[in-house]
Amino acid sequence: MPTNRTHPKRVSLLVSSLALFAVVALCPSRNGLVDAARPVHMSRKEVKQKEAEAQEKYIELKLNGADEVSNTDQAVALRNYQLRKKKMKGVIRKKEVTLAQVLFPGVSPEEYDLNEDVPIFAELVESKKTQVPFEYYDLPVCAIPSIAKKYKKRKNLGSKLQGRDPKPSPFPASVGSDVGCTPICKVNIGGTKLRWMRKLVERQYRVHLTLDQLPVLMRSKELNYAVRGYPLGFKAPPSYTKLKNDEYYLYNHLKFTITYKEDSDFEGVRITGFDVHPVSVDHNFEGDLNSNSVVATCNADGSDEVVNDPESFLALRSGPTGEPLSVIYSYEVAWEKSDLEWADRWDVYLIGSPDDDIHYFAIVNSLMIVLFLTGAVATIMIRTLRKDIAGYNEMQTLEEAQEETGWKLVHGDVFRPPSFSPMLLSVCVGTGVQIGAAFVLTMLCTIAKLVSPMKKGQTLTAVIVLYVLSGSVSGYVSSRIYKFCDAKAWKRNTLATAAAFPGVLVAMFLFLDFFLAFAGAATSVSFFTIIALFLLWICVSTPLVFVGSYLGFRAEKFYVPTKTNQIARFVPEN
Predict the structure, then answer these.
(1) What is the per-residue pLDDT across 368-413, written as a single tens digit (0 to 9) for each?
(2) CA separation for the pair 23, 13 (Å, rounded)
(3) What is the pLDDT of residues 202-211, one digit of tens each?
(4) Distance (Å, rounded) from C-alpha 205 to C-alpha 316?
(5) How far apart are the C-alpha atoms of 315 and 327, rounded to whole Å?
(6) pTM, whole model, 2 decimals?
(7) Is the Cα torsion angle 219, 222, 223, 225 positive or negative in sign?
(8) Are 252 and 330 in contact (CB under 8 A)?
(9) How far apart are CA 567 and CA 552, in angstroms?
(10) What is the C-alpha separation between 313 and 358, in angstroms, rounded?
């Protein structure tokens, strides 16, 4: 008879597993806390207690006057509490992650060596009061540096349509190297340019710079605010200047503060913050400015710190005899070490939107109401019409037909093909299905993390490409509906489906682009980009529409659930 023997290898494997389990179970975690890698399951009561403690701590810090925009531990704690819902990832079982993982999934931090050159890129100059942005180098500022070709970035189709063309700014910086007040260039502004700059200041245009993909930030710990970009200047009322009219001043000196983090876990440094403090100062200097020039109010020995002083503001006005305004642009850079993690460097940028949760709840509430009402109406209609549709498909006597009243009288005319322009109906439905298909595909790509909504140029490119590739869907649907209407001009239907909606968009786009180019806006599209869109339409979208139309006309004519009367019912005017 066979005996129950345990294999020696199995015994040794079992003993090793038990020993390993005992070591892991008995080994204390770091700092007496539970290891972060070990999942912790808390009850609902414990979760509510933890949230209540976090809320009490938040209220206590706010009462003590702690700000939310600096890099102190208190400010980081306040930001973490406000952004706690935005840092949750998952649908059913949500887990807490960093904001960088939510906004930029899969992006790894850039690490720099000490004294390594890091470019500061100049983005758009735009205002919330107008819809016409400009490029930074369209302004009367210093010329673009000679290293621009070295840092030139390739742009996708979406970036070109949005006018995003970052270029290196005239403010050089090296990792860890502080730069004192340094004059860069001298620019004379007069005539039309001077009036234009005054108009830009009045319309509150802001300059946007980026460093290591971080937008420049103006923040104040005392006033507890943080905004992107810095203004070109400011306007002072007559009550302040004691003049008859408003006076305009220009910010010509920038004080950059770059925070970074060093750690033994990685080599080099990681940039965690990029701040700017603009200053308006009238630098006194005669003659041409070069790299060896000494400006008394900037880089001279014993010169004071450059600050905003009402007595030294640089006014945007010409000289007494009408000579151009002479502007000296300068800057300085200060590098500060910080304990802020690279993954948390985006938190401060979202603090300025406290009403996001209100908008989110309002949208969800509206969607739930619409879905509930749609389901209720659909349920009632299905239960009411199921028997009616079955009865309408049967032969009815004249007496039974005369008993019908109300909306039931039109059951024989609902699916009647339109007598006026079935072409327009089929083209509009086919185009709508194409737009819907492109939208659904874009959402699926976003859910699958193939497209990041934070990269607006990439997202717009994906929408255009998916819309073009959905051309066969519009051709198929349009041809099926056109065939149902018993129309015969299938060639015109195919051409209209391929050209109607894109043609209207192109006409509107060219009309707006003409005025943007006339105004000198940065969002005006070049001629080559327009040619690329035209080729994408002609060479990709149109052939796909023809393929879908061919398949749609080859398919059988679809039938409707109720019979259609031979003679249309008369609709009374009164």
Answers:
(1) 999 999 999 988 888 777 776 666 666 555 455 555 555 566 767 7
(2) 15
(3) 999 999 999 9
(4) 15
(5) 10
(6) 0.73
(7) positive
(8) yes
(9) 28
(10) 42
